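To: structure desk
From: M.T.
Subject: fold request, one chain
Message: Could you run this one when you get a chance? Sequence is below, nothing fancy, just the single chain.
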Amino acid sequence: MAPAQNSPLDADSLNLAQDKQATSAKGPFEHFTTLLLIVAALYHLYLVVHPFLHNIIDFKGSSIFELTQLQRATHVFFVVVCGYLLTSRHQRQFTPGGAVFGLLTLPVVWEFFKLDLPLVAKAAGAVVWALVVLPAVLPARLGKFNLSNLSRYTDTLLALAGCLPYLYLLRNYEQIIYRAVTPEAWDMGMAFMLIVSVLGLVYRFLGPVLPALVLVFIAYNLYGNQLPGALGTAGMPLDMLLGKLYSETEAGLFGIITAVSLKYLVYFTLLGSVITALGFGPVIARLALKAVGRSPAAPGRAMALMSVFMGLFSGSGAADTQFVATVTKPLMQAAGYDKLVAAGLTATAGSIALVTPPVLGSIAFVMVEVLNIPYLSICVMALGPCLLYLASVWCYNELYVRREQLVSPQMPDDGKGLVRHLYVFLPLMLIMVMLYLGYNVSLAVTLALVSFIILGYLDKDVRPPFRRIWEGLADGFAHLVPIGAAVVSANMILTLMVLTGLPSKVSQALTLVSDHNLLLGTLFGAGFSLLLGMGIPPVATYVLTSALVAPSLVSLAVANGIPQEAALLSTHMFLFYYAILADVTPPVALSAFASASVWGTDPIKTGFATARVALPKYFLGLFFLMAFQATAILIVPVVQVMGVAAALPLIVYRLASSVLGILFISGATLGYTRSPLQRWESWLLGLAGVAALSPYWWLNIPAFLVGAYFFWLRKTPASPAVVSA
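Reply: Done. Structure tokens follow.
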């Protein structure tokens, strides 16, 4: 994927397992980086088995495997050190976003130097700050000096500096947790270095928006007492902020959101990378191709089905988009798909990974911690949106193929013996069974990872070299680094928001602005999520909206007759859904950028083409909260209230009505059903689609009648027979 202007790196640029030329050219530094990534992966895998071995194997230093605080600190340590070792390989240059990021650090640095600290502590903090900021604010050339390679040195030094706060915490953790409110001098020095290091790492991977947001919230805590009226806060000195962010076990850098990365994300990321390294990707692709037949719509169908299959193993929309686009591009070209339409279809399909159980991405795991519900419940709630996501791609593809009268391409005929490869889904069934039986996620995913390795070596068609396992582990943790850094930043944002009391203020304001109107509240929540998602990762978007918007939306939903528990679950799924929709929303649609890099199309135009395909999904999310019947799409809320038998007819009706609504909107977007539509007919059909998505029967019935006319009763003009290539 081509990185955005202010996001010089992306996870795909750090692929360690598949770049053979880079592997053969590695020097000692690169080998050390790979070794540390493998150690980081093995540490997290050992955490799973340690509870079963600690009575057998007792050794000095085992506290990093047993104490929650040290487990999270070790996780952050690996993210920071590995992250800077990875970024040190890449050149950096000045960008306007980097200058803004550097300027926003100045108030924090000013307050840090005002603290009563030893000169050595201030000097150490200043050096780390300079190493973080200088590559972001200095131009590529300064007079006769070439500074484009500056970050290679600064980031290597930052990797070394990242060891200091961790070693300090290991030595003093028993005392530090008791002095969060009154931190000692070196507590503050180490806290400052680690916070600045994390923000610098997020800037290097994800651009300036998320670290700038953290810095804005720090400034709000420092100077909020100077703001008038309701926006004002009590204000908090920097020493207390540093203590909160570094020393408290359930806040700041090592809080419950960081625990999401430690307990869930790392295992699913390792699973996906090991599966790829073992060579199961082509097997999954062939299964999808075999299942779709040989019609003109087969390339698009294969692309949609392949996205679901890959989504079973990976929670990354951009990564899945790139894989699916690469595999299906020749087939779609042979069928005659327009490049921009094909890129938009692929980007929308690839983002299905974000709502495909059992790997749902980082937000789902944050929901587990925030709502304190089983992960299996979130998987079940995601089933409806996943099916409807697939339906939107499928419907658009079918209508587009018919409108353009595309040809049937020559589909690969490699289905011999392919049925036996269905075993690739067995480890996923193992995950779901273990979750149903109550086992924790990390254990289930680790056993699935081991199962894939065993199955890979039992299958003579797959059987990879043993080094692929190590490459997969290293590649997996490398891909976790930007996600992990974003999650730690999200934890800091949550802590800083709570300290200011901002969530309750925003919730009260939203209730007043919406005038207790649930539709206005959901429109605000959707717009706020999409706006945030254009600049920050989905997990940070969800953390912000769940703290600022969710309380008010839950209250509005309850006031409109939705039971409390159903309102709570539906609100958070609504915010989850709109946070991930940012992946297909221009101008910063990551899946669209990934697809454009494969298809060679303009990323911005691809983003708008993606949004056209995804158009029904923008309306679908709004109806999660409109009435109790609307929550049936999420299954769990209505089952909890009504029971399975009573809820089943409502669930089936809502899903069927929503599929029809998606079909109607897709037809309106393309201007085609059984024949081309006039402009007014497209508008009428589009309105019927929105009405069919709504949870009100008195809107559904006229919508079905309008749709029936356009799709079943309208006369079809004579058209030439479809030709096979």
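Reply (cont.): The longest strand covers residues 141-142. Let me know if you need anything else for the meeting.
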